[in-house]
User: Fold this.
Amino acid sequence: LHRIYSKVNRLYYLKEVESTTDRCRISFCLSVALLFSCTVGFCVEHKFGLWFGAGGVTLFIALYDYDARTEDDLTFKKGEKFHLINNSEGDWWEVRSLSTGNTGYVPSNYVAPVNSIQAEEWYFGKMGRKDAERMLVCPSNPRGTFLIRESETTKGAYSLSIRDWDEVKGDHVKHYKIRKLDNGGYYITTRAQFETVQQLVQHYTDRAAGLCCRLVVPCHKGMPKLADLSVKTKDVWEIPRESLQLIKKLGNGQFGEVWMGTWNGTTKVAVKTLKPGTMSPEAFLEEAQIMKRLRHDKLVQLYAVVSEEPIYIVTEFMSQGSLLEFLKDGDGRILKLPQLVDMAAQIAAGMAYIERMNYIHRDLRAANILVAENLVCKIADFGLARLIEDNEYTARQGAKFPIKWTAPEAALYGKFTIKSDVWSFGILLTELVTKGRVPYPGMNNREVLEQVERGYRMPSPHGCPGSLHDLMIQCWKKDPEDRPTFEYLQSFLEDYFTATEPQYQPGENL
Assistant:
């Protein structure tokens, strides 16, 4: 029993338990564990809830401020500490605040174990190289802004990404691998080894020591995205209409309106309202079950629905509106090719996830991409097109159906696949480089269908590099199987200015 106590103490458990009564209960539990050869972790976990948390840790610290959305969750400030009570709810953990004594739920991605690498300002966890570059090249970041993330290629190692500048390249990002020693230490170069990543960061904060420059300031972290409105809507996400307040109309569509609103008087959301008769509530709810499970940082997160007509679709709010309006009337008008290609790469990344999940969008175009701060793009309205019951739309003709974006096999025969989405992506690329121009200018829908069937493809837009137009042509291959995958499109676009157009120079428009 003493050996088991020692083991539990090493798991940071008993020293966190202040109540004598609780200690006695745990002693009894440990005795039973010894008698029945149960593992300590199993016994305590199932007798008293998931006390250990991840890796045996029960003490956590807030990484951000958070305002409670319901009576079940806690308001807290960055730096506040908590004891973990229960983490069986997945994205929402029950905790007790050490400063207030209050108990309630907190979003699990807003906290990290005290004194862990996850609690550091500069640690960004699982993040790809391209996303690190996007964050670091934001105009407000000085040279020497840095972040550390998990290595994409080596388990247990990390990558250090630093914003740099020189006269030839201008602003750019350098990446260094932080390797792990067998004895647990870390190094970038074997000449300088450290027990912890924190010590390594401090060393290179004091001096460049072979890096492009010394580490100056951690990259700013945006607030993490929540997958649900609250712990209660995690599983029960059909919500009462009265819980929503529609505040400002953002747009009108053929099948409804888009509003900025609030849920429960606390949380800013976007609300898409559908005209009665647009789609069957039963079919919509079935599709929404799938949509709710799709989680990716390049997809607009579905939060909740009102499934009785008029149907309400509640999603995360995107401050810059649709990509189409952003390109035509917003700040997108002044963007150059590097930013436009990066936006295309983000959309391809979201579609690559949809591809991996064996899902189909069916209506991919700039009007269904939403934009947030720092040119972040996310895909909206995935899967909804299949449910529309409007006769003019389902006949795939007339003004309501997006013929100009639709692959010929889908427009003529209703064969929608991920490869017809690839065709639509090629059309979306033309929208990006022309700043929102309608595809096939001067042609009506019937002419487009006829000409495309005869082999016509849009010529290269003014100022568009030949290599990018070649990519569009690949997306518009007649045989769907000859079109590229979204995985390929993402990779091609992310590496476009290093692998394909390294000599790019800004032009008048692009």
